Amino acid sequence: MRDTVHHPLFARCYARVSVAVDARGGVAAHRRALLAGLSGRVVEVGAGNGLNFAHYPGTVAEVVAVEPERRLRRLAATAGLRAEVPVDVVPGVAEALPLKSEAFDAAVASLVLCTVRDLPRALAELRRVLRPGGELRFFEHGVGEGRALATVQRTLDRTVWPLLFGGCHTARDPLAAIGAAGFEIVSYRRLRIPESGPATPASTCVLGVARRPD
What we know:
Elements: H1 8-24, H2 27-35, E1 40-45, E2 60-66, H3 70-82, E3 87-90, E4 104-110, H4 119-129, E5 130-141, H5 147-157, H6 161-164, H7 174-180, E6 184-192, E7 204-211
Parallel strand pairs: 1-2, 1-4, 2-3, 4-5
Antiparallel strand pairs: 5-7, 6-7
């Protein structure tokens, strides 16, 4: 059966570049901050090649990691075997999670909301599978704060960027989308990656915590 998401060239490049960016670009530290203090059952959408897995604290009972791209899913499964917490890597897309409602204590979205085809539907699915009061941890890039950069991002999103970068859109506003999906924003901070050097269309990031209301 053909995968719903199929970006073999991008997946191959991402698997190499992401490891280097984690090590030299400071992203690994942000992953640790993203996952700190989690416990219970966690669902992670768009797990990619599994770079988050090494940073889950021992208080997590299980991670169910959903990844639609076949090559990245295989790499994630290998990474899951090395993790200190149980990790189950499964196929699926964020817009139709193959999971029971209200089955998870927390959800993780890490550099993935830019790529989902239907952002409101994906966030609705995350809310569905979270128990009331459950947390959504997010680490995402999005639209820049300056008008010039935002204009460039919107132009790229309408032309070549999604084709070159596995469906990624740089001009989305993840914070606004999470709030519009009915989550309560608990805390967040804006980041720039990398912290020094010229800005890129994907430089502006936000890391934070939201909550499904009781």
